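Re: copper (II) ion structure - here you go.
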Amino acid sequence: ARPVGPGRYEVTQRAAEAEILPGLRTPIWGYAGTFPGPTFELRRGRPVTVAVRNELPVPTSTHLHGGVNPPDADGYPTDLVVPAGYSAHHHGHPETHHQGVKEYRYPVDQPAATLWYHDHRMDHTAPQVWRGLAGLALVRDDEEDALPLPRGERELPLLICDRSFAADGSFRYPDHAAGGHFGGDHMEGVEGDVVLVNGAPWPVAEVTATRHRLRLVNASNARRYLLRLAPGGTPFVQIGSDAGLLAAPVAHAEIPLAPGERQDVLVDFSAYRVGTAVTLVNALGEGSAGNVMRFVVARRAADDSAVPKALSRRAMRPADVGPAVATRRFDFRRGETAWTINGEPYRPGVPLARPRLGTAEVWRFTSDFHHPVHLHLAHFLVLARNGRPPAATDGGWKDTVDVRPYEVVDVLARFAGHRGRYMLHCHNLEHEDMAMMADFDVV
Ligand code: C2O
Ligand code: CU
Ligand code: CU
């Protein structure tokens, strides 16, 4: 992203080519013509305006995932930036059109966190993200700066997504996987057989034998990961979740990551001998999808980082949030012709809930399938899975929770920051495009 003034960026979405597989050219659609798009470094308390110019042949809508933003900057699926000369064919729902460019104003009034942005166009999110319309946005703040966390080269944001390729190097996306045939071969959404990290297949990172911070982001359309280190011998020390730092670090042997989720972890490579190649493994993946990337421990080095005993002072326990003023249920289920929430395929402008600004509510998610459930605007704490305490990796403020088949997941969501129209949806992007989405209005 090209900064053009204090707090202002201009980013052009355009078609370009990338060398992802050696010697082959992959046509992409990218923010600033790159895949992934540029990483935005944001600072709490410093609002930014991002002018997104659309030079693609299709409309787009940009959503900052995890962002606490006013509704007109949230990337509502029918709030479209249409390219010059594009003649709109309506789908029968009201659309807002910005000709060529839209300015998204982000207040950046939220704690340090790993956010990401991606296209959110009605009915077309999955294929447009697959072609490359996604990137990272890191929010930093004073509280995080005061912690002795690894930084600079020892902080590695890792945007993980899978793709399939045709023999000529182009991305292969099945016809009609989203928006066309419902169900069929693509019930589970579209998975690729090559895992990419920051747009590169099976990359190698040379690391010193010191602590590193890995900001793990699952930007895949549909693939879920269970990440492990091989050889093991040192844990992932989780310091943050989707929406920011935890109260205190928690060690995990493995990290599940559903589409849309983030995990912020420390890995201490001094546990390995110099020369060791450490693989980040996906225990859920078969064949080439079973490996994500490698770290080669190149040499010893001084380490002034530490694992802080306490991380963030934000309210972290349900008791700190205050009593829930309402309980609502959202049932994610396969319908006759679409994926549905409470029996309804998505209808823009028809909110399923009207929570009040400044309150907290318990939202209960149930499903007949795997659905990573995501809320815009509102961050939440996972209270329970099937009436029992949530998984250790569910801790902290989140915006996406993986709801497993026949599971009942209770979350305590806080509606803060802005009034207006937001959405909840399945973050399996093919399910989202097949209508598993709903509006809620913060009133
Ligand atoms: Cu990352 Cu509404 O999505
Ligand atoms: Cu979002
Ligand atoms: Cu789903």
